[in-house]
Amino acid sequence: MVNGRDIPITLAELRERLMEMEHTLLTTGVTSSASSSSTHVTVSVKGQDEEEHRVFWMRRNEKMRKVMERYNDARGAEWRTYVFLSEEGSNICEDKTPDEMELKDGYQIDAMLHQHEGFGPSSIMF
User: Fold this and answer.
1) 36's torsion region: left (phi>0), alpha (psi -120 to 50) or beta?
2) Which of 71, 72, 75, 96 is 20 to 30 A from 49, comparing alpha carbons?
3) CA-to-CA distance for 108 and 31, rounded, in angstroms?
4) Predicted TM-score of the model (pTM)
5) Which of 89, 41, 90 minimizes the C-alpha distance to 66?
6) How many angstroms separate the CA atoms of 84 and 124, rounded?
C-alpha cells in the first residue's frame, strides 16, 4: 500500500512528488545534508529490452557499481549480465562516482546485454 492506495504510484507521480518535496525544502531554508539536492543525483537506466526507464537515487560520492548492482537485482540478473553505457556510448566504469563523471540530475544510462561470444567469420568452420 502506497499513500493509502492499494496500487503503486507511477514513475511520473513519484518524480513530481520528489520535485515538490525538493522545492519545499529549498524554499523553507532546510539545509539537511540528507535532503540537499547537491549531495544526491537521480540516474535513469534503460535496458535494451525495456520500454521504460528505471530511476535510481544515489549519493554523488557513491560508486556507480551500486546502481549497476541494484539494476541487476531488479532485473533478477547476475553481476556482469549487462554492460552500462553513458549517453555518449562509452562504457561506465564501476569505480567512478557521479561527481567524478560530472553527472547531472536525470542522467540516462543504457544497459546492454553483455555478449560473451560472437558470431563472425572467425567462428565459421568449413
Assistant:
1) beta
2) 96
3) 27
4) 0.61
5) 41
6) 29
